[in-house]
Specification:
Blueprint lengths: L1 H12 L16 H12 L3 H9 L2 H10 L7 H18 L8 H37 L2
Length: 137
């Protein structure tokens, strides 16, 4: 029971897939982006969602920078998307920083932190599996 649970958990964490920038919508034009930023800052949820959707390509681009020897692209895309959402939700235009620059930093921070966590978790799960196999011989 424990072994199958560990195996299922590992599969959920490290389900592999490939992403190409072709699966994501094109970035917004500068004018469209500025328009949606203004609306988002005024509380418009549709503009917020549009900014998230049209910046998913940025997540895929940043994830490609990381060494993906463990084939955890799906996890990194998910985590990077969470970083993107946090970036969009906390963006303030007061410093005149481009939203993509701000969000890129949020995506990198989320991805880097989580990648280290996933590596540690994978080692822990492997140890649990080894211990379980040893104890059940």
């Amino acid at each position: 029971m424990l072994l199958s649970l560990l195996s299922l958990f590992k599969q959920m964490l490290f389900f592999t897939g490939s992403y190409s920038n072709n699966v994501f919508p094109d970035p917004l034009s500068k004018e469209e982006e500025e328009h949606h930023i203004k609306l988002m800052l005024a509380g418009n949820k549709d503009s917020r969602n549009k900014l998230i959707e049209h910046n998913l390509r940025l997540v895929a681009h940043i994830v490609k920078k990381f060494d993906n020897a463990s084939n955890d692209n799906d996890d990194l895309i998910s985590i990077g998307t969470i970083g993107l959402i946090k970036g969009i939700d906390t963006y303030k235009n007061s410093h005149k920083t481009k939203i993509t620059t701000y969000c890129a930093r949020c995506i990198e921070n989320a991805t880097f932190t989580s990648k280290n966590f996933l590596i540690e978790l994978m080692h822990y799960l492997n140890e649990l599996e080894l211990n379980y196999n040893f104890l059940t011989r």
